[in-house]
Request: fold
Amino acid sequence: MKRERQLVIDYVDYESPEELEPLDRELVQEAIRAQEGSYSPYSHFRVGAALRLEDGTIVRGANQENNAYPAGLCAERTAMFHAGAYYPNTAFDTIAIVGSDSNGICETPATPCGECRQVMAEYQTKFGKPLKIILVGRNKIQKFFKVDDILPFIFESLKAGEVF
Ligand code: THU
Reply:
């Protein structure tokens, strides 16, 4: 039978980093510092990501651009792929993301592109643990508690634990 459905997404808005828990505040600072690694001569948009693993390790990433545009990579994926390659058995806990243009940190939080969301979903499934996401803007920070909340109806054929 036909049914109208709604999705409800729980997330938290913060006005300043001071309102965050200490570990999250530190991660936001790491994401801001990670922007120093941005190689963005084409867009001039500097994105930093900081990924905290379940053992507390923090992995940074920054966007890497290329003269042949599609060859570049977003900040989030440089961080996640580094962590996936270097700490393959340590689950991802939280990723913080921040973007800056010539006026500094963007007023509204930079949100991950669709491909980065799909990669987040993959690691969330791989580790069987929700991956939290913190989006950082100049006047607003948003925290989401699982990838499903920024990527509803995730494509999943790989089930948790089935790692080849
Ligand atoms: N970018 C990221 O690094 N992360 C995002 O979530 C969105 C976009 C990068 C890609 C490119 O280097 C620049 O920002 C402009 O799109």
Summary: Strands lie at 11-14, 46-53, 58-62, 92-101, 104-105, 132-136, 141-144. The first strand starts at residue 11 and ends at 14. Residues 40, 43, 45, 47, 63, 65, 72, 74-76, 110, 112-113, 116 surround tetrahydrodeoxyuridine (CB under 6 Å).
